[in-house]
Each structure stands twice: as structure tokens, then as C-alpha cells.
């Protein structure tokens, strides 16, 4: 490795906001060549997708059956792609780690799906959805991709309705919409609080139809453990049958990762237990750049941790903040008291105090940070976990007095029931307790306009890629992106790649295949033979604590450097001292987790390096050093209007940073304000 | 609280299984049932005994991956999924019996993990609307009466967990099938394939080894999403109609 060129990396004289000397990220990475999206079309933003679809070459229907596609993951992005490519006549293999493709975590999305239908005639349009998404992403997303997302959003609703997705309707029989996530138009389609479930079941049924038709082969309870690359191209995966333990080689002409996000790097998140980064991380280690890994979305209204046994967190709809008032006791001494016994004058409605105009409705990241700050001050409420009370009250007392219990129950009844079931407390009588939780990651594998990674033949869709949400995702846009990618974008862009077929047949004894397979087998053997003393979960929990503390809601140079040291130490210890029982040849959940945690540890380090490099606050990334006098996030467009795409160079080697400049032709960059 | 746990252990699909007894101390009432098992597993791992395999994923009651027979009840004593059951539903000193789903059509893979692939195959047989991507008409071109849409949604909330089968003395999957047939049958989009759908799904159901329905109602009582029993009446009605139409 060459020594880093420090002038490129971080010249403090440019920033104008930081005092003192700091070497910052330059000790942690090497600068690389700029990255350019070679598929990005020119011309007016509104014409680009039409032009690209026309330019992308076609594949003769008679040849499609001879072309094989592997798709990893069966959430909205994966199931929709597998179904659509199966319908088109390609030879598709679909993989999921769950026992059925219907269980992927898209199913848990509550709120809804955005689409620029303008059914309410309230001024919505493709351009407005595009504008809101770029602005919501704090001007860190790629203009062309976001415009395309808004453009195909309307097709998604048509497709889902035709599949029988039971969206909410009005009395006239037409589709209902609601306003969501603070936008001023009603463009969110929903199916009560279970929109993700209904959309996923729609995609799942389309997928099952193709399985029955023989165009898609389904591999449930299979986990991708390695990517096979041959002459620089993605040509297959190594997967483990999680029931028998068999290590399998699956070869194909192209590989699609629709493997979701990596929020579980924080151990506790609203992700499902099995959500992991392994598919994406193995691809990263094989040459796919990882983009903006530090962009994490933290949701302010989750049910707090009840003890060290906590395994995951549950989200409650943000709509609760419309009528609930958030507070903590003014005095630490009151924190253990029954909240009903704390006098009004002893309560600190801190959001209303600090942000008088927006109050309890400040954006997610501000509400989240403020909650952490009051808990760090020792004024949190609820059970003490590892010495700290991490919870704040969300009080409906005033709302119940003003609107009546029935009106509150009508609006929030299902959420109150969920809260009562999990906590055992009655939120009509005692204020709810809430705390922020990791919810979504905007970062992911870098892709070009065609959704192709830096490895030819490896495409990445949905939350697993970085492309559409910039530094922050708008509510009801994750479902939109997953289905846009799978139904309407990938099927068009992947054909341009497949048009080069037929491809050379690869033998299972090709040295690169054997090498990939052997590395997987050796890794499994290593985990089973360390015979250490600590469980996989204990390492995962420790990693999560480090990430939450130093790479969570607020990041600072000192904190991130400390985190990197802690993670490296943890990694060494993990490989020397982890205890995984059982065998490789059977269903072994500890073994599955060991591989995932190993990859999370490496990802965690890269996230901290990325956060360290980005010495600005933007979207879900808040650097303590980059804020206004009022404590608001301060972006630095002159220095950081780029995508950070990281290249793997080896364990204990510095990653290489490639920058893709972001330019906007249809939108002007603006700084947000909530005062 | 302190608990005695009797848990089914089986090392593989073809091995014999047996109930094993474990003592677990200091269980917090705020733990979920599965977190209680996590704690037990950490202790087993510590002692050098292989952890108990059980399924779960979202742990918020929506994915349908979890599911245990708890004291003989599918998903335990409350009307919810196993992952949303909390230990405050149990008492100090209690003995809790934990088994996998009971059904020949859901073979045990290991310990408490079963194979529910039969459900996917029933959906493959007809639980869909045949509409290729991109061929859909404008969403507002077909209005759907709100009552139909609401009822379709209510039965579409099925999470495919299999509790209905596990609870049924006949091991029937009629509630699961009835929910899908009713969901799609209420919508205009589901009409063209309505007859074929029910005939093919029922044939696959029987082929998988699920039993027939004798209107016991244990399925709907165990269903965490409270799918009503009358979806089975709808299933039977649709089947009769299809047969009348010559299927």
C-alpha cells in the first residue's frame, strides 16, 4: 500500500468550521481515483430513463431461457425482480435464508408507499416527488436515479392493484391516500398499518406463480456465503443449505443482490433477527465498492430496551408525535418516580423548549438526538439497563383530556395495544416510554444508473444498494424503491448486460470456483474449531454498543477513532475466542450467526472510517463538529457533495476512497431549517 | 421468576426426538418468550451443550416465521404470535412444555424448527392473480367497493405461520387456504381465475397430507391474526361453484 496523500484527504483549511489540528481520516484510508457513473444518461432529467430503456439492448425471447440469473433475497426488491425476470423467460434461481420467501423483512414496513399519482389533485407530480426525495436525502443522492424512481412510482401502484393488493379505499371504491412524513401532498398509498406485508405478499405470489411455471427455482433456508468472480465478472455464488449444512456452488451469467440493509450491525435495531450484511460484504471483499456506509436512519419512536435480554426493537408509527408530548423529569431524583406523580412544573418538555415552533414534530434525527442527550444527562426514565435509563415519556394525557379517550383510541388504538402487549403498561393511564432505534440504512453497495456494481455482472437492488435516498430516506419511500428496482428498473437494465450472451460455460472445478468454495469451508471450520469461551451473541452485542455509542446519532472525530480501535480489538478477540458448538453438517444457528457477526465487525470499522471522513452533518449523519450555533446539522456542499465509494484492499489494509461527484441540474441545493 | 422448561429436542429430520427438562432462573416478566429461550441458549452454550434451534425473524408479529406449541397451545396462551408473547403471561414456578408445530405436513427439521414448504406449494397451485409486470391497467380503472376491499384486507392479514394447522385435531390447512381464496375472491382482479384457484389449491392441500375440515374452530381460536372461521365456508362455497362449472 502507498502512503496516503494527505492533501487530498482532509485539508482542514478548506472546512472553515473546525479548530485545531487534526489528521482525521487520512490515517485510515488511501485516496483513489474519482468514480464516474458511465451509464448515467445525458439530457433533461425527465428524458433520461426513457432514453436509457431505449438504448439498453434487447435479448431475443428465444435466447432468454439459456441465460441464467441468481437473485439473493426475496424482499420487495428480490421477489419482484425474480418474478419479473421469470415472466420474461430467463432462467432464474432465487435464494432466501428464511423458510419461505414471504417472510423477508419488507413485510414489517407499516406506513405506506409513495407514488406520484396525484389522485388528490393537490399539486403532486413526478417532479415534486423527485424534488421532495432529493431534498429529503439532504442533496446526497443521485439526481438521475431519484427522478427515475419518482417516474416509475405510478406503475408500481397499477401493478400491485392488479395483483390483488388490498390497499385502503374510499367509499366510491377508489384508492385512498394520506400525507406522510411531513410532506404537503397526499401521495402515500397504504393498507392499514401493514402496507409492507400486503405488497410483499403480492410480490411473493407473483414469484410463487413463476416457481410453479418452472422459470424460477427457489432455494429457501439457503444463505449466500461467497461471490464467485471469474475474470473480474460475477459468475455465481457459494451458498450453504442451512438445514443439511451442504456447501453448494451455484453458477450463473449474472448475480443480483437484493439482500437488504445492515442495520443489525448495531445489534439492536428494528430489523429482523436474520437481517445481515454477509451477501453484500462478501461482494465488497471481491471488489464491489461500498458507498456511504455511515448513512444510517434512526427512528425516534421505538419501544425502549427493557433489559440486557433485549433481542430487537419495535418501531411505533411516528404519527404518535402529532398528539403526544415528549418530556423527561427536570430533576434526576424524579426519574424513578411514577410519572403521574411528577408535578407539571417538574417536567421538561424539552423539544417544545428547544424548538418552540416545531416542538414535538421536529424531524426524526433532531428528535432522536435530543432524546439521547437528555438520557446521557441522567434524566432518562424506565428500567436501568447497564447503568443508564434510556427512555423518554411520550404523554397522551393532554390529548386524552382535549379529545377524549375514544378519539385517541380511534387514531392510535392499534399502536397503544402493541405498546401494552410489549411493555405490560397501559398507555391510556401511564405515559408511554420511547427511545430512538436504528431503522434503515441509506448506504449500501455502489451501483451505476443500471444498478450494476463495480463488479461487472453483479447488480444490487433495494436497501442493499445506496442509490436513491442520499443521506436520509423519506417515509414511505423504501417500499417504493424496492419495487421500482425489482419490477421496473432492473429488468430493463440487466438485459443490456445479458445481451452480450451467451456467456462462456464455467465448470465447477474452475480454480476460482474451487477457491471460493474452499474459503467458505475453511471459514466454517475455523468457527467450529476455535473452542473459545464467548458466545457469538456476546460479541454482536458488544459491537452494537460500540456502534451505537460512537457511530450512532452523533459522531465525533475522537469517538470514531476510539470506535475503530475498539472494533479492531474486538475482531481479534472474536477470531481467537468465539465459542460455536455443533457441527457444520446440520442446522446450526450459532454457526450461521458467527459468519454474519464476523462480517458485521468488518463493516462496522468501515462505517466508522466513512463517518470520520465525512466532516459534515447531512441527513442521518451528524458530526458533532459540524453544527450551527443552534445545534442544527451543517452541510458542506463545497467539500462533501460526493458519494464516498470504498474499495476493499484487504484485512488490516487501508480501504481506498473513490469519490463520485454529485451534480444537480434540475434542483438547487438548499440548507434546511426547523426554527 | 424461576421456570421448569420441558422442550422437544431432535437432532435432525430423521432422528428420534425426546422431551428434555431445563431449569431457568431469574426470568424477567418483561422478556418475550423467545428472549427467554435466547437466555436459556446462552446458558446452554456456556455449559457446552448445543443451543436449542427455533425459528424467528421479525420478532414483531408479522413475518410468520416463529411458532411453538406452548403448553399444548399454538403460540401459547394469548392471541398473538410466539414472538409477541411475554413472560408476564406465566407465573413463578411454572412448568412450561414447548414443542414444535404438530402436523405430518410440517416435518420437524431440528428441535423446534419445522418445514412449512407445503404452504408455499399451496400458493403455487393458485394463490395469485396472473398479471405479468407492466401489463397492469391504470389502478383507478376498476373501482372496488370499500366493504369488499376492507374485508379482503382483513383476511389478507394471514401471516402463513401455520398455527391453524398445528391447532387443528385434523391437521387441516383450510383456514390458511380459505383466507387466500376469500381475499382474492372478493376483488374484481381475482375473478378470472377464481374457479381454477380453489380447485387447484384444495388438490395441493390434500396432496400435501393436510387433513379435512370438520368445523371444530380450533384454527381460528389459535390464529394470531384472528382470521374468521367463515373463510372456510367461503372456500367450500367457491369449491362447490367451481365443481358446478365443470371443474
Automatic annotation (TrEMBL), chain B:
Residue ranges of domain 2Fe-2S ferredoxin-type in the record: 1-102
Keywords: 2Fe-2S, 3Fe-4S, 4Fe-4S, Iron, Iron-sulfur, Metal-binding, Oxidoreductase, Tricarboxylic acid cycle
Family: Belongs to the succinate dehydrogenase/fumarate reductase iron-sulfur protein family.
Keyword Transferase: no
Gene3D superfamilies named among the record's database cross-references: 3.10.20.30, Alpha-helical ferredoxin (1.10.1060.10)
Cofactor(s) this protein cannot do without: [3Fe-4S] cluster; [2Fe-2S] cluster; [4Fe-4S] cluster
Residues covered by the 4Fe-4S ferredoxin-type domain: 149-178
EC number per UniProt: 1.3.5.1
Cofactor remark from the record: Binds 1 [3Fe-4S] cluster.
Keyword Iron-sulfur: yes
Protein name, entry field: Succinate dehydrogenase iron-sulfur subunit
Top enzyme class: oxidoreductase
A single MF term (Gene Ontology): 3 iron, 4 sulfur cluster binding
Catalyzed reactions: a quinone + succinate = fumarate + a quinol
InterPro entries: 2Fe-2S_ferredoxin-like_sf, 2Fe-2S_ferredoxin-type, 2Fe2S_fd_BS, 4Fe4S_Fe-S-bd, 4Fe4S_Fe_S_CS, Beta-grasp_dom_sf, Helical_ferredxn, SDH/FRD_Iron-Sulfur
GO biological process terms on file: respiratory electron transport chain; tricarboxylic acid cycle
Organism listed in the record: Nocardioides zhouii
Pfam families membership: Fer2_3, Fer4_10
Amino acid at each position: 500500500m502507498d502512503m496516503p496523500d494527505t492533501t487530498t484527504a482532509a485539508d482542514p483549511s478548506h472546512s472553515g468550521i473546525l479548530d485545531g489540528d487534526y489528521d482525521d481520516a487520512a490515517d485510515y484510508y488511501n485516496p483513489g481515483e474519482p468514480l464516474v457513473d458511465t451509464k448515467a444518461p445525458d439530457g433533461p432529467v425527465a428524458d433520461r430513463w426513457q432514453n436509457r430503456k431505449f438504448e439498453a439492448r434487447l435479448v431475443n425471447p428465444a435466447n432468454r431461457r439459456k441465460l441464467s440469473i441468481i437473485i439473493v433475497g426475496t424482499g420487495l426488491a428480490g421477489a419482484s425482480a425474480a418474478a419479473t425476470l421469470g415472466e420474461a423467460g430467463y432462467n432464474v434461481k432465487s435464494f432466501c435464508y428464511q423458510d419461505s420467501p414471504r417472510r423477508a423483512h419488507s413485510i414489517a414496513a407499516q406506513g405506506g408507499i409513495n407514488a406520484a399519482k396525484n389522485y388528490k389533485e393537490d399539486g403532486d407530480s413526478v417532479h415534486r416527488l423527485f424534488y421532495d426525495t432529493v431534498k429529503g436525502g439532504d442533496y446526497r443522492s443521485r439526481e438521475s436515479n431519484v427522478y427515475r424512481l419518482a417516474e416509475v412510482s405510478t406503475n408500481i401502484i397499477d401493478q400491485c392493484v392488479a395483483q390483488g393488493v388490498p390497499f385502503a379505499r374510499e367509499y366510491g371504491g377508489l384508492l385512498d391516500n394520506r400525507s406522510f412524513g411531513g410532506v404537503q401532498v397526499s401521495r402515500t398509498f397504504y393498507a392499514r398499518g401493514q402496507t409492507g406485508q400486503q405488497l410483499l405478499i403480492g410480490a411473493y405470489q407473483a414469484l410463487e406463480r413463476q416457481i410453479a411455471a418452472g422459470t424460477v427455482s427457489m432455494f429457501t433456508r439457503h444463505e449466500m456465503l461467497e461471490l464467485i468472480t471469474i475474470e473480474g465478472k460475477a459468475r455465481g455464488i457459494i451458498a450453504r443449505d442451512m438445514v443439511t449444512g451442504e456447501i453448494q456452488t451455484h453458477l450463473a451469467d449474472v448475480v443480483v443482490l437484493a439482500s437488504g440493509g445492515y442495520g443489525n450491525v448495531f445489534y439492536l435495531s428494528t430489523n429482523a433477527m436474520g437481517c445481515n450484511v454477509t451477501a453484500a460484504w462478501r461482494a465488497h471483499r471481491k471488489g464491489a465498492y461500498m458507498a456511504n456506509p455511515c448513512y444510517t436512519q434512526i427512528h425516534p419512536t421505538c419501544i425502549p430496551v427493557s433489559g440486557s435480554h433485549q433481542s430487537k426493537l419495535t418501531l411505533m408509527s411516528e404519527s404518535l408525535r402529532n398528539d403526544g408530548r415528549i418530556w423527561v423529569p427536570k430533576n434526576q431524583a424524579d426519574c424513578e418516580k411514577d410519572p403521574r406523580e411528577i408535578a407539571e412544573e417538574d417536567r421538561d418538555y424539552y423539544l417544545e423548549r428547544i424548538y418552540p415552533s416545531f416542538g414535538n414534530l421536529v424531524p426524526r434525527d433532531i428528535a432522536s438526538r435530543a432524546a439521547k442527550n437528555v438520557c446521557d444527562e441522567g434524566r432518562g426514565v424506565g428500567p436501568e439497563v447497564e447503568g443508564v435509563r434510556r427512555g423518554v415519556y411520550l404523554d397522551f394525557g393532554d390529548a386524552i383530556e382535549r379529545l377524549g379517550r375514544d378519539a385517541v383510541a380511534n387514531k392510535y388504538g392499534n399502536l397503544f395495544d402493541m405498546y401494552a402487549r410489549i411493555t405490560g403498561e397501559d398507555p391510556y393511564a401511564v405515559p408511554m416510554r420511547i427511545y430512538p432505534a436504528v431503522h434503515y440504512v441509506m448506504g449500501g453497495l455502489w451501483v451505476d444508473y443500471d444498478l450494476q456494481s463495480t463488479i461487472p455482472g453483479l447488480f444490487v437492488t433495494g436497501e442493499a444498494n445506496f442509490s436513491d435516498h442520499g443521506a436520509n430516506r423519506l417515509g414511505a419511500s423504501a417500499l417504493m424503491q424496492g419495487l421500482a428496482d425489482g419490477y421496473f428498473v432492473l429488468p430493463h437494465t440487466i438485459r443490456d448486460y445479458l445481451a452480450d450472451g451467451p456467456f462462456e460455460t464455467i465448470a465447477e472445478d474452475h480454480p476460482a470456483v474451487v477457491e471460493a468454495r474452499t474459503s467458505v469451508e475453511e471459514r466454517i471450520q475455523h468457527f467450529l474449531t476455535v473452542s473459545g469461551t464467548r458466545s457469538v451473541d456476546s460479541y454482536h452485542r458488544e459491537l452494537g454498543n460500540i456502534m451505537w455509542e460512537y457511530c450512532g446519532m452523533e459522531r465525533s472525530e475522537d469517538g470514531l477513532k476510539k470506535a475503530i480501535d475498539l472494533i479492531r480489538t474486538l475482531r481479534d478477540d472474536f477470531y481467537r475466542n468465539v465459542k460455536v458448538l455443533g457441527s457444520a453438517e446440520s442446522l446450526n444457528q450459532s454457526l450461521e450467526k458467527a459468519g454474519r457477526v464476523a462480517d458485521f465487525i468488518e463493516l462496522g470499522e468501515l462505517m466508522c472510517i466513512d463517518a470520520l471522513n465525512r466532516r459534515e452533518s447531512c441527513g442521518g449523519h451528524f458530526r458533532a463538529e459540524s453544527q450551527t450555533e443552534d445545534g442544527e446539522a451543517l452541510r458542506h456542499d463545497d467539500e462533501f457533495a460526493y458519494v464516498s465509494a470504498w474499495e476493499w484492499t484487504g484485512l488490516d489494509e487501508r480501504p481506498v476512497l473513490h469519490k463520485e461527484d454529485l451534480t444537480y441540474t434540475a434542483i438547487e441545493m438548499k440548507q434546511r431549517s426547523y426554527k | 421468576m424461576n421456570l421448569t422448561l420441558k422442550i422437544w429436542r431432535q437432532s435432525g429430520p430423521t432422528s428420534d426426538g425426546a422431551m428434555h427438562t431445563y431449569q431457568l432462573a431469574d426470568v424477567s416478566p418483561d422478556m418475550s418468550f423467545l428472549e427467554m429461550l435466547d437466555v436459556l441458549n446462552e446458558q446452554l452454550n456456556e455449559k457446552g451443550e448445543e443451543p436449542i434451534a427455533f425459528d424467528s425473524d421479525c420478532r414483531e408479529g408479522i413475518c410468520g416465521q416463529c411458532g411453538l406449541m406452548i403448553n399444548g397451545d399454538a403460540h401459547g396462551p394469548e392471541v398473538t404470535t410466539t414472538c409477541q408473547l411475554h413472560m408476564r403471561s406465566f407465573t413463578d414456578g411454572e412448568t412450561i412444555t414447548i414443542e414444535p408445530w404438530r402436523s405430518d405436513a410440517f416435518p420437524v427439521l431440528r428441535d423446534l424448527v419445522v418445514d412449512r414448504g407445503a404452504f408455499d406449494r399451496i400458493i403455487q397451485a393458485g394463490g395469485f392473480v396472473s398479471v405479468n409486470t407492466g401489463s397492469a391497467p391504470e389502478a383507478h380503472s376498476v373501482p372496488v367497493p370499500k366493504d369488499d376491499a376492507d374485508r379482503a384486507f382483513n383476511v389478507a392479514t394471514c401471516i402463513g405461520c401455520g398455527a391453524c394447522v398445528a391447532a387443528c385435531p385434523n391437521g387441516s390447512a383450510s383456514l390458511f387456504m380459505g383466507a387466500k381464496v376469500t381475499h382474492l375472491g372478493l376483488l374484481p382482479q381475482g375473478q378470472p381465475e377464481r374457479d381454477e384457484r380453489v380447485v387447484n389449491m384444495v388438490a395441493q392441500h390434500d396432496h400435501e397430507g393436510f387433513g379435512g375440515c370438520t368445523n371444530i374452530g380450533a384454527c381460528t381460536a389459535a390464529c394470531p391474526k384472528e382470521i374468521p372461521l367463515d373463510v372456510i365456508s367461503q372456500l367450500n362455497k367457491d369449491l362447490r361453484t367451481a365443481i358446478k362449472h365443470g371443474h
